[in-house]
Amino acid sequence: MDSMKGQGGIQMLLTAEQEARQIISNAKNLKLTRLKQAKEEAEREVKLYHSNMEAAHQKKISETSGSSGSNVKRLDEETAMKIQSLKESASRVSSDVVATLIKHVTTVKA
């Protein structure tokens, strides 16, 4: 009779050990599944971040290029206005300058 109890106890231990192995195996599989999901989610986030940063970079480049073109246009307009202003000033004083030069050239100092 004791051997029957011993056999039953051993069988219970073997069954419990088998159940424990199954629980551990399920836990490992669940952990691996979660790790794969986390990795995939992290990769998606990295791709999204990269695409956002690339878009911001391209936008910054286009803004810089566009403003560079407008800066060139603005500088050309300012330069043309300054040249015109200098020409007008020169034409206003040119007769006075010519008169002063002729006066100094024709005057003989003794």
Automatic annotation (TrEMBL):
<feature type="coiled-coil region">
    <location>
        <begin position="25"/>
        <end position="59"/>
    </location>
</feature>
<dbReference type="InterPro" id="IPR005124">
    <property type="entry name" value="V-ATPase_G"/>
</dbReference>
<protein>
    <recommendedName>
        <fullName>V-type proton ATPase subunit G</fullName>
    </recommendedName>
</protein>
<comment type="subunit">
    <text>V-ATPase is a heteromultimeric enzyme made up of two complexes: the ATP-hydrolytic V1 complex and the proton translocation V0 complex.</text>
</comment>
<dbReference type="GO" id="GO:0016887">
    <property type="term" value="F:ATP hydrolysis activity"/>
</dbReference>
<dbReference type="Pfam" id="PF03179">
    <property type="entry name" value="V-ATPase_G"/>
</dbReference>
<keyword id="KW-0375">Hydrogen ion transport</keyword>
<dbReference type="GO" id="GO:0046961">
    <property type="term" value="F:proton-transporting ATPase activity, rotational mechanism"/>
</dbReference>
<dbReference type="GO" id="GO:0000221">
    <property type="term" value="C:vacuolar proton-transporting V-type ATPase, V1 domain"/>
</dbReference>
<comment type="similarity">
    <text>Belongs to the V-ATPase G subunit family.</text>
</comment>
<keyword id="KW-0406">Ion transport</keyword>
<comment type="function">
    <text>Catalytic subunit of the peripheral V1 complex of vacuolar ATPase (V-ATPase). V-ATPase is responsible for acidifying a variety of intracellular compartments in eukaryotic cells.</text>
</comment>
<keyword id="KW-0813">Transport</keyword>
<keyword id="KW-0175">Coiled coil</keyword>
<comment type="function">
    <text>Subunit of the V1 complex of vacuolar(H+)-ATPase (V-ATPase), a multisubunit enzyme composed of a peripheral complex (V1) that hydrolyzes ATP and a membrane integral complex (V0) that translocates protons. V-ATPase is responsible for acidifying and maintaining the pH of intracellular compartments and in some cell types, is targeted to the plasma membrane, where it is responsible for acidifying the extracellular environment.</text>
</comment>
